[in-house]
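Q: My collaborator sent me two sequences in one message, no labels, and asked for predicted structures for both. Can we handle them in order? The first one she listed is below.
A: Yes, handling them in the order given. First sequence, followed by its C-alpha cells:
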Amino acid sequence: MDADEVRERAGSLPREPGVYLFEQGRDDTRRVLYVGKAVDLRDRVRSYADPRSERIAKMAERAETIDFAVTDTETQALLLEANLIKRHRPPYNVRLKDDKSYPLVQLTDHPVPRIEVTRDPEDGATVYGPFTDKGRVETVVKALRETYGLRGCSDHKYSNRDRPCLDYEMGICTAPCTGEIGEAEYAEDVESVTRYFEGETGVLADPLRREMEAAAQNQEFERAANLRDKLGAVEALHGEGDTAVSDSAGYQTTDVLGAAVEGERAIVARLHAEGGKLVERDRHTLEAPDGEGTAGVYRAFIPQYYAERELPDRILCAEAPADPDIEAWLESEGVTLGVPGAGREATLVDLALKNARQRGGTDDESGRLADALGIDRPNRIEGFDVSHAQGRSAVGSNVTFVDETPEKSDYRRKKLTEQNDDYANMRELLRWRAARAVEGRDDRPDPDLLLIDGGDGQLGAARDALAETGWDVPAIALAKDEELVITPDRVYDWDDDAPQLHLLQRVRDEAHRFAVQYHQTLRDEVSTTLDDVPGIGPETRKRLLRRFGSVDSVRTASDEELTAIDGIGEQTAETIRTRLQ
C-alpha cells in the first residue's frame, strides 16, 4: 500500500475515537500486521502516508487493507487495542506499544507493596489502568496514601532504615520500614486500596467526603474546596470506562449486535465482551431480506452465525428479532436476549450500530444527496416516525444526523394523541417540532433537511404542519416498501446501491427504531405495573396490553371494558383500578 492509497483510505474514515488495523491478505487469509488506537481515526491513519520509521514504512508497504472500529472514548479505544494485540499478536506491535504514553498504577510484588504511577510496571506487580488523565491518577494515588499510608519509596530506600522518612512526618506513609505499623495491618490497608481500584469507590470517597463536610462545618473553606476537588478526581477515575458491559448479573460473556441495511446489503457489527470488558469486534455482510428491516436482519443473522459457534451468556440487540422460535432456542440454551433502553448496555448497542453504519468507501453521501435533489449539501438531517398499536400508546420520534452520523444528544421523542391515524399523528409530531423551532423553545439548530418515514400521505401531513407554523425547512419522505424517495415535486427511484439512498435509509431506520423503542416502553408499563396484581398472569397481562396499550387507558377503562377481557372478573377489575390509583 503506497502513500496515496493510505491517504485515500484514511479519507473515508470517521473523525472519531477508535482502533485501526493494517492487514495483509483478504477474507479468510487476512493477517493483522499492526493495531493502533486514535482519538481521530482519519488523522491518525493519514499519518502513515509519511511513516515515522523504516519499520512502520515496511509495515504500511506490506499492508493491503485497513480495517477499523469506532469507540465512544479514547480509553475504550486503548483497551480494545490492547485486547486485539493480545488476540492477533501482530508482528509490528512487538516494539511499538502506544500504551507507553498512558499511566498505570502498580502495587509491587513485595511483602510490603509500594504504590506508584508508572508507564513501565515491574514483573509480578498488580497493575490497574491504563488511564488517560495522569494528573487525576496522581491526585487519587496521593489521596490513597494520605488515607491508607502506603509507601511510595523504592525497595532500596525501604531497606535498612532506622528511622522514618519525611513521608511519615507528612502523614502519607505509615512507615512499615521501621515497624511503626505491622505487616498484617499494612496488608489490610493494601487490601482497601485494591478494593478501590476494583471498583469500590466508597473505600476512598466516603472518608474524603466526611473530611470535607467537617472542614466546611469548621469554616475551613479552602481546605473543604481542596477536598471537594480531590473527591471529584476519586469518583471520576472509575468513569474512565474500563468496564464496558455490566456483569453484575453473572453474565461472563456478552455479544452486542448492531445492524444496518443499505439497499440489498445488510451489515451486522458484533462487539464481544468478556468479564465486562470489550475484547473483540467484527463486521458481517448479509444479503438483506427482501422487504424486511433490521428486525429481519437479526432474525437471519442470529441462527446462522451461532449455528457453529459457542453461544455467549447474553445477546444484546438494538431491536428484537420478534421470532418466537429464536427466542425459545436461546432460552433453552441458557442465553438471555435483551433490547436495552438505557444505561451502559444501551450505550454499547449504540456503539455496535455506529460500527455497522460506518462505510468503508469514499462516497460523499450528503454531497450525492444534494446533487440528486438539487439542494444545498444537507449536513444536518432530522428524521421522523410515529408508532402505535391501533392508536394506543401513540408516540413520535425525532432523530438527528450530523455529517452522516447519529447525534444522540439531539434525539427527541413525544407522546402523541391516541388515534389510529398515521397522517394525523405525523401532522401532530411535525407541528410540535416546528412550533418549538419557530418560537425559539428548541435549543437545537434548524436542520437542513427533514426526512419523513412514510409515503406521500405522511409527507403531505408533515408539509401541512410546516405551513401552519411557518417553519421553512425542506421535507422529503422515504417509503418502506419500494424505497421510493418522495419530494413535493416528484418521486425518485434510485438504484439500491446509490450512496444518497443509503444515507436516507440509515436516518429512516434510526427514526423507526427510536419510535418503536419508546412505544414498547410505554406498552410495557402496563405489564410492569400489573405484575403484582393477584389473579393476573402473563396471558391476561398480554390481553390487557393488546386491548388497552397504556396504563392511562387501563386506568380510565370502565368495568364493562375490563371484565370483557377473558380472565378478569369484577373483583380483579376492582383490584386493578385500586393498584392504578
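Q: And the one she listed second?
A: Here it is, processed independently of the first:
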Amino acid sequence: MSIVRSIPGRIRFEVDSGQEVLHVQERILADFGDDAVDLEFSYSERSGRALVRFVPDRMLTERVEEVVANALAIPLLPELSDCRSAALGDELACTLPAHAPGIYEPAELENPFWIVAKKVFNFYTTRLLMPMRLRPYWTAFNVAPLIFEGIRNLFQRKLNVAVLDGAAIGAALAMRDFSTAGTIHLLLDISETLEDWTREKSRKDLASLFAGDGKPVWVLRKGEEVQIPQENVAVGDLVVVRAGARISVDGVVADGTAMVNQSSMTGEPLSVKRGIGKEVFAGTVVEEGKIVILTEGVGDETRFAKIAQVISDSEAMKAEIHGQAIQLADKIVPFSFVLSGVIFVITRNWMQAAAVLMADYSCAIKLSTPLAVRSAMLESAYFGALIKGGKCIEQLSKVDAIVLDKTGTLTRAIPEVVDVCPVNGYSREFILRNAACMEEHFPHPVADAVVRKADEEGLIHDERHAEIEYILAHGISTTLGGKRMILGSRHFVHEDEGIDLDVADAQIKRCTDTGHSTLYMAVDNELAGVIALEDPVRDSAYRFIRRLENMGMRRIIMLTGDGEASARTVASELDIEEFYAQVLPNDKTELVDTLRAEGYTVAMVGDGINDSAALSHAHVGVSMKHGADIAQETCDVMLTSERLDSLIDSMSISGLVMKRIRRNYKFIVASNTLFIGLGIFGFITPAVLALLHNSGTVLTCAYSMRPMLPEQ
C-alpha cells in the first residue's frame, strides 16, 4: 500500500481492499476534526487504487498526503475464522498472518582456507600423537582407496591419472616410505577439496541468482485469506496475489483481473491483461489489480525454476581447452611409466625409478584447468554476467564481431513523451489531459510516460469519463461527454477503427520523421492528435560501444525492427556506423550466419523471442536478465543486471582466464621437469620430490582461483 501520485487537489493511492479505503477516510476525518473539508473518495476494485479529491490547495494537499501516508503505513490484518471451524490439523487457519520480509536464507559455504588448514592440522596432529607402530597401518588404511581406484581403472584397461596416483603411493608403501605416501594422499585430498569447494560455490552462486524471494504466500482456506510459507504451497491451492507482489506459482487465473509484467518470461516491457482462464507464471509481477490463481506448478516444477536449473546445470559444458587438458593428462601417464622403467633398467635403483612416478605433468594440468574455468564463471557472475560453461568462456575470449539488438539492449525500454501533435482543431492540452486520464488505469511503461508528462505540465486529468475498456495489444476506449474516445496504435485507430489519417499527414509526419513511436487519439471517429514517445538510450550505452572499440572489436552492428528514422537516430547518438532497420527475425539469423561465413567469431546480444534464433546461431549468444525465457535458454551468456559493462567484464575475464591456463601449462611443464630431473640424478629423495610436486600442484590450483580482473 502506497501513494501512487499526488498533485494539488488529488491524491491516488494503492490499497488491498475497500475496507482500507474506509480506514484512510476515517483517519483523514479524525485528523481534521471540526475543520470542514470537502472530500470525495472513489475506489476501483479491479485496479486496487483509490482516489481522494478536494480543493486544489497546496498546503491542504500536503496535510492530506501526510495523513494518507500515515494511514497506509499501518496495515489492516484480516479477520480470521474461528479456530473451532478449522479443519483438524489446519493450524495455519488459526494463526495471524506473519509480516516477515522473507524466509529464504542461502546457506553459507565454509572458507576454503580454513578447510585446508584443518586438514593439514589434523594430518600432522594425528601423526604426532599416534604411536609409531600404528602409523604404517593408519597410513595404509587412508591411502587404500586411491590404490584400489588405480587397480580398478587398470583392470578396465584405462591407463590414466588414477593409475599413476595409485602407483606412486604403492611405490612409496613398497619402499616403506609411509611419510611420503601420507603426504601424497594429503596433497591430493587438498587439491580435490579445493576443486569441490569451487564447484559447489559456483553452483550455489549461479542458483542464487534465480532463487525466489522466499516471502510467505497468501492462500484461500475456507473462504479466508491466510499466509503460509512459500514451500508449503501445493498444486490445487488458490493463491491470492495483489498489486506489487511477485507471483510464486504457475497456474490459471480463477478470479479477478490484473495487469501482469511478464518481462522475466517474455522480455516484453509492457504489462499484459490477465483475467479468468488466463495462464500466469512464477517470477512475473502483478502491477495492477488482484487475482486468485489456481496453482498448477510449484517449486522446481515452475517454468522459472526450470530455466534456473538449465542455467545451473549448464556449468557442465566443458571448454575445448578443458577437454584437451584432460586428454593430455591421460596421454602423459604411459610415458611416466615408460620413463620410470627406463630409469630402473639403467640405474637398477628403485628410488630413482620411483621418483618419476612421484612427480608428473598430468595431475596439475587436470586439476588447474577446470578450477580456472569455474573461477572465471564465478567471477563473471559476480560482475553480472552468467556464463553457461567453459566452452562459452573460450568462445567469448575470441569474439571479434558483435551484433546488438536496439530495443531493450541499447535503449532502456522506458519511453518518454517528447511531442504532442494536435489536429482537427483540438488543443495540445486536451489530448495530453484526456490521454493521461485514460492511461492512468493501466500502469505499463507507455501509460506511465503519458501520465508523467501530464503531471509535469500540471494538467489535472479528472476521472469524469465512463468505464475504461482495454483492448489487448491494441489500445483503450471510453466515453466522455457522450463521445467515444479511443487511444492506441496506428493499426488500431486506422485499420481496426477505420479512422482517416490523411487529413493530418503533415502533423503526423512531424512526429514520425524523428523516429519516435506514436500513440493516436480519436474522438467520435475523428483523429484528434498524435503523441510521440521516445525510448531513451541507456546512460551507459555510449561508453559500452567505445569500450568495445577499444577492445579491438572489428565489427559492431546494431539491428532493430523499428523504422529507418528511429534506427538512424540511435545509431547517430551512439556513433555506430553499421546498423540495419526493419529487421525481421530471419534477417537477424542470416546476418549472423553471414558473419560466421566471413570468418568472424560472432556474439549476438538480444532479449526477445524474435532474437532467440540468432542467439543460437551466434558463437556466443547474450541475453539480458529481462529477456524472454527462450532467449535465456538458448543464450550462452546472460546479463543478470541492466549493466551493459557486465558483458565487457565477462569478455575481459574470458581472455584473462585463457592466458592463465596457458601460463599454467608452461609452469607445470617447467617445474615438474626440474623436479623429475633432480629426483633421477639423486639430488632429492622421492619424499621431497612428492612434496615439491604436490605443493606446486596446490599452488597452481590456488593461482587458478585468483580473481582475474585485478590483473588488468
